[in-house]
Please model this.
Amino acid sequence: MGKFYIETYGCQMNVYDSHILRSILKEMGWEEVNNEREADLIILNTCSVREHAEKRVMGRIWMVGRFRNKKLGIVGCMAQRLKERLLEIPHVLFVAGPDEYKKIPELIEKGGLADSLGYELYREIFPEQRGVSAFIAISRGCNNFCSYCIVPYVRGRERSRPPEDIIEEVKRLVDMGVKEITLLGQNVNSYRYGSVNFPGILAGVAEVPGVERVSFLTSHPKDFSRELVDVMASVDKVVKYLHLPLQSASNRVLRDMKRKYTFEEYMEKIELVREKIPELTLTTDLLVGFPTETEEDFQKTIDAVKKIEFDQSYMFRFSPREGTLGSMYPDPISEEEKLRRLSELIRVQNEITGRKPLKEIGKKKRVLICDRAKKGGMLGRDETGKLVVVDGGKIGEVVDVVIEKVSGWTPLGRVIEKQKHTAGRISQG
Model:
């Protein structure tokens, strides 16, 4: 058929969807290349969560237009949101949303917009993923309709995959050499299929022979349960890592965001999981500059970050998304003020993040080696999902390590077995 190149923007779900696209194209006879100049077909898999993400894609669309005699397809969340507008661009051949990838063969031939296929699960497609780590989508879509978020409008309502499909995909990935599985969903812990809930499928994946580590993204606080905490604490192969978005520590702002929990309820869940899993790595999402956020509200978020001491935070300023409830609020906060708040929040979090690795010195870890480190040594993850650079081990191997020092925010460790025989040197990753 020719050669194709896929460029992916946005979240881990988009990364997984690009694997689905590869599977469809390779089944058609297309060959993947790593350079857009060699490709006959270029596909941009897009993100629409923030205005900045869409602007980046628009820039790339016009840059790709300088290549003559190449087919260009726009897929993903931005494609779903701006279908007709994107197709008006002269060199765009086709546009398809996240539920329409089975139409790709027809679109390559005829061009245009994909007819909606409804709420797709891609049940019969098991994407090939090479390497130590892989993603698996166990659910798609979202029912929460947070007032600032475009996801439910571009990815549709929530639906869960059958557990037997998930387990089958895990087994196939293990046969390809994958050791670490990350379960994905817009709201992963609201997964339910028949009598199987999220703690059940999480434990089930951990039982598949050959799986060394299982983690998940992303949780919603309102659905984070005691049963899930028990599975995380009791199943060794479940990574002791939790990404639990807070967004704001002001109850009034949380109400306006339609988050469906209070700060006090959030704190109860944090205290529970830290009581059960003291070594937990905890990360979050924070959004500043929401139209109804006052300076007092913002300071509550700052105080919460200092109190909770997240290992890391993904921090953003509010970006209105057309069609969401949040875009209809009057927005009295200037861009300059949003940037000031974001800068202060980043400073506070970075101070906390910088202190955390020092507490790792002297600890023993079980590290799954994932890749070679850029500046020497091997790169891996410990039982809590933290990145560690070690002085030995093979990709895919789990090694016992003692943390000896820290470079920047990265712990540096020595494989314990080697310590008896060598005085090997650790390089920064």
Remarks:
- The longest strand covers residues 398-407.
- The longest helix spans residues 335-355.
- Residues 418-429 have pLDDT under 50 and may be disordered.
